[in-house]
Amino acid sequence: MRFAKYTFLIAGIYGLLALLPMYFTEAQYGVDNPPAITHPEFYYGFIGVAVAFQIVFIIISRDPFKYRTLILPSIIEKFSFVIAVAILVYAGRTSGLIVIGAGIDALLGTLFSISWFKLSGADRS
User: Fold this and answer.
1) Are 78 and 22 in contact (CB under 8 A)?
2) Which of 19, 25, 96, 109 is the most buried (most CB within 10 A)?
3) CA 16 remoteness from chain centre
């Protein structure tokens, strides 16, 4: 259970550190990755949902066995981004640093999956 505790705690802290600054960088994002954001509600909506999931990861880290059912949507959260970025790269629609972010999410999704399987076979006693 220690593996899952540290995996989810590190994932949650990392995610908050990566996401929270995005609340203050919308304008710069448009400069670095033109064109400018035309639908800020999607941008801020994404950040809000993603930040909420980082809190879920931290909650899971407190008692992974108790919250193991939350690990399944956490795995989906990680791999849905990985798959989307892979398809976009293949289609020539994105590149660069986002691929590194997708790689980190692939690693975390894999660690989440390992945590799920370890906890599924564990006995709480």
Assistant:
1) no
2) 109
3) 10
